[in-house]
Amino acid sequence: MLYPLTTPSRTLLDLSGLWKFMIDEETTPIDPKKPLPTEDVVSVPASFNDQTASKKIREHNGFVWYETSFDIAKPLASQRLVLRFGSATHEAWVYLNGQEITHHKGGFTPFEVEINDYLVANDNRLTVKLSNILDYTTLPVGNYSETTDASGHKIRHVDENFDFFNYAGLQRPVKIYSTPTSYINDITVVPNVDLENSRADVQVKVATEGEFDDVKVTILDQDGKPVVSGHSADQTLTINDVHLWQPMHAYLYRARVEGLKNGQVIDSYTEEFGVRKVEVKNAQFLINGEPFYFKGFGKHEDSYVHGRGFNEPTNVLDIHLMKDMGANSFRTSHYPYSEEMMRLCDREGIVVIDETPAVGLMVSFGFDVSMLESDDYQDDTWTKLKTADAHKQVIKEIIERDKNHACVAMWSIANEAATFSKGAYEYFKPLFDEARQLDPQNRPCTYTSIMMANPKTDNCVSLVDVIALNRYYGWYVANGDLATAEKATRDELKAYSDKFPDKPIMYTEYGADTIPGLHSNYDEPFSEEFQEDYYRMTSKVFDEIPHFVGEQLWNFADFQTKSGIQRVQGNKKGIFTRSREPKMVVRYLKKRWTNIPDFGYKK
Ligand code: GCB
After folding, report:
1. Residue 298 domain-assigned?
2. Quick one: which of 77, 357, 360, 383 could link to 141 by a disulfide (CB 3.0–4.6 Å)?
3. Mind listing the pLDDT tens digit for each residue in 578-599?
4. Which family does it belong to (predicted)?
5. Sign of the dihedral defined by the CA atoms of residues 52, 54, 59, 62, in that order
6. Per-residue pLDDT tens over the stretch 367-411
7. Does a structural domain hold residue 398?
């Protein structure tokens, strides 16, 4: 799926700004044929939750309504016009001038619809009804229930089956783009790198709609100079003396694609791409043939006021802070991030593990963490959850959206699912097959595993290319006891290496809640001293394990969660605060990571 851009044949209208907004109390039906009955507004793109002073709005579960209006400049009337949502969280019904024009379920992937047939000359009224309901059929998974109040009015409840606030709304850009009536619909770029000869054969596949009699593809280098070109909707172009896209040293080529008719360019689109090779071999994660070591984070799209809304200055700052620390990668825990963030990572050379919103796939998840220590834990997740269809759909959507990104080095199919429970393998096998079949670049696949899924109990390790562990020894298990935690960390990593000698292993989460400014002479949990000691302990063990290929800690920054006895206005495992001030441990990690090379750390 193409990102909306201006090109010589395409224009772009941005619908960002103030939209009318109201929560749906489900008392009087709202008729999208009439203007939305409110004068209240919120800003788009952003989550709606933290934009007002109302607890009722912030914690509303059910439906909300947005509305804006726009005009289309006359010269565009003859063009094909497409309304495109970067995302709409979690389910959307879209009306133009009172008529339903599309519906989409899944809160973190884009969707679009042609609008020509529904436009009027002036004041087009665009209305969106959204649901933030999560249940056992959705991703993420929510515990959904209904009660009635004293007047018999239905109250909806969503208890997040995961550890982040259920922010919702029009969280990403909403745009209208134009194309000619014959247009380029999709471009797939697959670079095949010949490392020995510094050459790449780049397959460029173009899908078009309408009347073209020729497709021209020109590959431009980073300075805009043409490198090679050819005519065909499916061709392989060779780049000699190729500049590789390397972690922290990005190099981006552009494929300029032109659809022609009778020698005239009808539509054009320029797709950026990087040339790099990703493989898992002999328990190593190879990028361009060299063993890569992941240094970085699990993150969230989370910031003050914006909530989970697109916040580009924060994205830019986050990447700068990562680079400054010597980090080279992050995981889009626990959902696909904005397309703008992926484009930024392409430019900045940040390696991304791209995760689906499959989080909460464990029906017994809760604040009782004693189960983490269990070695024979089972639950009935796979008889209760009905998420397979949503999961399959989002795998397709995330790959369609992100397939050409050089920054994406691996797919994470799920976070902390009940892979230890009966039925897990049967659930995941078709999903891994699907991802592998759909990804034209054949990237490695993984899921991140919860502590009860260990070398003995995890039923699904055979499906992954890289063993990705979320581990909290010293925090949820053996809290404050770093000697015990060190032994448990070491014993488990050794057990994994022994049992799966061909698979690289990495940590995709490990961390300790830390209150900024809290200090302790006794290195107590929650103090900045404890956080640093915790990371020193884990680092020491990581360095002993040959097949250990990366450390992505939890979390880059403090973030908002639902309330609960373990959360003080959110999760405090950030090494930065929510406003991106460093905690003490940043100095230690910066020193460690700037001394660890991106390549060849583990021989
Ligand atoms: C986890 C989850 C993550 C939580 C984290 C924590 O294992 O994957 O979403 O926020 O633990 O801090 O408890």
Report:
1. no
2. 360
3. 999 999 999 999 999 999 999 9
4. Belongs to the glycosyl hydrolase 2 family.
5. negative
6. 778 888 888 888 999 999 999 999 999 999 999 999 999 999 999
7. no
